Amino acid sequence: MGEVYLATDIVAGRKAALKLLPLRFTGDTERLKRFQQEAHAVVGLNHPNILTVYEIGEDHSIHYIASELIEGETLRERLTRGRMQLSEAVDVAIQVASALAAAHHAGIVHRDIKPENIMLRPDGYVKVLDFGIAKLAEQELPTTMPRDEALLLVETNLGSVLGTVRYMSPEQAFGAQVDKSTDIWSLGVVLYEMVTGHTPFTGDTPREVMSSILEKEPPQLTTYVAHIPAELQQIVSKTLRKDREERYRSAHDLLEALKGLRHKLEVEAELYPSTATPSWLRWTRSTALVLGLLVAAMAVAVPFYWHRNLTTSSPPEKSIAVLPFLDLSETKDQEYFCDGMSEEIIDALAKVEGLRVVARASSFSFKGKTAAVSEIGKKLNVEDVLEGSLRREGNRVRITAELINARSGFRIWSDTYERELQRVFALQDEITRAIVDALKIKLAVALPAREQRNTEVYDLYLQGLFFSNKSSEEDLRRALSFFQRAVEKDPTFSSAWTGIAKVWYFLADVYLKPLEAYPLSREAAMKAIELDERDAEAHCYLSEAKRVLDWDLAGADAELKRALQLDPNSAPAHLFSGLHPLFRGELRDGLRLILEAQKLDPVSPIASYVATAAYLANDRVDEAVVEGQRTLQLDPNYFYLDSV
User: Same domain, yes or no, for 257 and 393?
Assistant: First the structure.
């Protein structure tokens, strides 16, 4: 819409794209006013996939928009060379969905998503153009107008209803009021075209196309492409529901679905070379399984990779991974303190509604590695990464932290703190609030202040926490010693009691007989709950004690239910909640909960292993093979995989 010129911003000394808006639209005072209101909101958008607008102005009654100059080609130009590879199409759709999610969050609806408004840069970045411009052309029809009259009016005023009719939503084709669901529909059409090389709704005239949009269902993707993952068909079908209430509730929900699909494709691309057949193309074979042996193997295996996970079960708009802080102390003996600070920040951030925090096990898998932030963000499926360093000297601690956008590599926030050691609890809260502010998250409730503890006791607890996250008997015994010394000095320290329950649980089955370790784990868990009933992790250990010692599945279920109420982000609680249905033969429910746990802890070998066994229990052998291969990628020495 409008002519575009290459221009030079004399003041800023930069090249710019100058779009002149058509007089037929700017001549309408009301339309122009609506456009200007939304366009100024667009100027405030700052997103790597949205065209940056420098200025909106008027000169001699000519209205214009000055924006960044994008090198590359439009998606339309790319599609003239044929349909795209599946991975390429999904990547473009993810970036467009990310742009829409940001715009919708700011209250802006694009209204004209189509290949002409999507730019592909040579470096792989996608830019969505013309946010807000469609407001100039928007025309709403009376809801009482008969359908044929509405179609005729829309057809005769195509220029005033969003350019290309093939990408219109049903509500646009009918001239009704539009909202963010319109953009979700249009992106679904674009995704369909990228994958197949065809648009889903066709006709010889605009009116025939609109009738098709309103009346017909699009052909399945396999009509044009022989092999399509079922997940992709599900995504496309959901975006193209006639009833907007049945589409994805938000662009962010669509974004997460697309990211999940990309993850599946990447895993299969790594597991199967180009000459092999990916799992979603091979036939499923039936097999007989001894479920009892599988579940028993899973129950034994869980302790070795069970670390607290504090991500959200419904992926929110913001997501973050907290990497272990680097030890910059001269003596290099503060690794436990660095890890403890990172874990405490994970714990605090997990209480923030609307923020997904990757599990400790997954984020700490990058410890000691030199992976780029972009690689970490991609593997953990997060938008932002928190890095930091710590230097402890005597009774003082100096912490430097920085928050980095994983896609762009831009530093969002950074700061350095130097405090007395006894103020470390307040410092953790201060860093947490700074991160929340930097992410522009509006808190529903104030963050709870961290309970002050004796620094000597807290130091013992952090050392116990450090060794409890290792798997050898020697390390677990050292962890137990630190936790016990902590409760000796402060018997009211509930987290230390939970640590004791954790260690005895980890020692059970492998290093000790269950009847020796589980009673001690239960005793410590009950003490922790007595001191702090809201300790979700303690409820998990108590649940396992009830299951193993008493065969009280109802009581164990009740403890897990309480754990999930207190911390719906707990991967262990989801994992064990999935095991219990398997015990009862409720295979589908068990698999669903186990996959939820796996989603919460994306690079945990135990979550992958348990998912493998659950797939087998559900007679989904091909998927079990893929997941088992992934387990070995995550940990080549994962010996429990032999049991399945």
Answer: no
Are 325 and 418 found together in one domain?
A: yes
How is residue 518 written in tokens?
A: 């589980």
What are the phi and psi torsion angles at 128 (to 5°)? -95, 130
Same domain, 119 and 265: yes
Which residues fall within 8 angstroms of residue 33, CB to CB, at 6 or more apart? none
CB-based burial, 308-322: b 16+ in 10 Å, e otherwise: bbbbbeebbbbbbbb
- Could you tell me if 606 and 600 are in contact, meaning their C-beta atoms sit under 8 angstroms apart? no
DSSP strands (E only) in 138-198: none
Catalytically annotated residues: 112
Beta-carbon count within 10 A of 303 CB: 20
What is the average pLDDT across 407-431? 82
Task: Name the token pair of 51.
Answer: 């065209």
Q: How far is CA 3 from CA 20, 44, 52, 62, 322, in A?
A: 5, 23, 18, 12, 46
Mean residue pLDDT across the chain? 79
State pTM to two decimals.
Answer: 0.47
478/468 Cα distance (integer angstroms): 8
Helix (H) or strand (E) holding 486: helix 473-489
Tokens 């030890």: give the residue.
327
From residue 92, give the alpha-carbon distance in Å to each of 35, 85, 220, 365.
27, 11, 21, 29
How far apart, in whole angstroms, are the C-alpha atoms of residue 505 and residue 520?
8
Pairwise CA distance, residues 610 & 389, whole Å: 34
Among 270-274, 382-386, 402-406, 531-535, name the one with the lowest average pLDDT.
Answer: 270-274
pLDDT digits (tens, 9 = 90+) for 137-186: 554 444 444 455 445 444 544 443 433 789 999 998 877 888 999 999 99
**In whole angstroms, what separates CA 40 from the centre of its chain?**
30
Among residues 67, 87, 102, which one ends one of the domains? 67
* Cα–Cα distance for residue pair 283/225, rounded to 1 Å: 18
Boundaries of domain holding 57: 3-67
Measure Cα distances from 278 to 171, 275, 283, 625 in Å. 39, 9, 11, 11
